[in-house]
Amino acid sequence: MKSLFWISFFVIVYVYILYPVLIYFLSLFYKKPVKIKYLYPRVSVILPVYNEDEHIEEKLNSLLRINYPEARYEILVGSDGSTDRTKEIVETALGRQAKLVLQRIRFFEFKERKGKCAMVNFLVSLATGEILVFTRCRQECDVNALEEIVRNFSDKRVGAVSGALCFKKPENNKARGGLQVYWKYEKFIRKSESRMGSMLGASGALYAIRKELYPGLPNNLILDDVYIPLKIVEKGYRALFDKKSKVYDMGQDNPGEEYWRKTRTLAGNFQLLIYLRELFNPLRGKISWQFFSHKFLRLIAPYLLIAMLVSNYFLINSFTYRVFFALQVVFYALALMGAVWRHKNFLLDVPHMFVVMNTAAVVGLVRFLARKQGVRWEKVG
Hints:
Layout: H1 2-29, E1 43-49, H2 56-64, E2 73-80, H3 86-95, H4 99-104, E3 105-110, H5 116-126, E4 131-135, E5 140-141, H6 145-151, E6 158-167, H7 178-196, E7 206-210, H8 224-234, E8 238-249, H9 255-275, H10 286-313, H11 319-340, H12 346-369
Helix pairs in contact: 1-7, 1-10, 7-12, 9-12, 10-12, 11-12
């Protein structure tokens, strides 16, 4: 029991504390600077949508406000069998725009749903840009987002770049803070990985690649925003994180919706262990270590947490183990309180989000093994 407890304890500490610290300090000593300058290649913005009548007009307005030479970028919108007013809103919005705008926006529609990957493959096949920029409908792009993300490609070693997902502060200031803390933590790790070489994955809200490196998506793929950058890294190119290329989200104040999103993401991560198994090869160097530490160990962390708690219970005759057990009980009690407390509270929100993420990893594995995690969008709540 002692061995089980301490192995579980040290792996958990390594995954959530030591790895982020190690990657940060290593990135300070082994920096790989990027040769950056502003340039304006032709860009194709890829926007697949499904039942987004609530957000589509605002998203298009956001993309049209971007500071980038108008003749140098196009927007390809693809509706994957939407059953709401998405098509009507897009066509109405285009009808109010000038002729130049009509030339920049192209709308396509699948009458029947084929899935996001099929739609993305289709839109990419029609893209004329040297750089592909992928984005989602719900988030608003910063006016300088395109210019900032594209400038990284002046370095020939760069194959993919992720923008930074930022959360707007709600006016009522009552939104839960756990998600914001999680994303700050993730961005800290991504910046360190990027500085040292390549990050793992990208933010699906905004990322860009060289069109020539687009790998094509399997139709059953769940996470294109991780698969695409890592397939590019496999080819020897860098995948970077750019904090200046910003995209904004209000964040989720609905724990059920955020839990569903995370469950889907983690089911996708299990799928990626198969699709990207080449990255486990230690001969690939630090990217293999990053993939093992940041992706694989995160997925087995829930089982280590359970093993640590259970083994600790059988060791509470010792004072040291009683302290550890008490700390775990307090932590999970705070997480439980965070599930029912409806206002922002850092002390409760962080344990709650930690437990939600790890619970989602367990459910994600079940859904993956049972093949119950669909690859199509589904609206929640």
